[in-house]
Amino acid sequence: MKPKTDVVMSDIIHKIKETFPFSISEDELCGDTCSYGCAKKLLEYLYMEITEWEQRLENGEVPNLQDIQKITKTSKNIYRVLEKNNLVTSHTEI
Known about the structure:
Number of strands: 0
Distance between the termini: 22 Å
């Protein structure tokens, strides 16, 4: 039996919260030159996305597969930028 998409989205959000350095200070984020993108803005964007989905899930909205693919792709792309900017050390599959 396949899991429901709302459960999958909740799991993805949980994994993102565990994996990404949302609590890192601005000094650490912006200390060196961001060669591959602004880590601060990317983390803010991702946090906004997952917060919005948490609220939507609480309101009973059911995501579709496209929604799940979008947040997964976005988080992977942002993670790669953070890796290139040396803000995360090892690659974790989201």
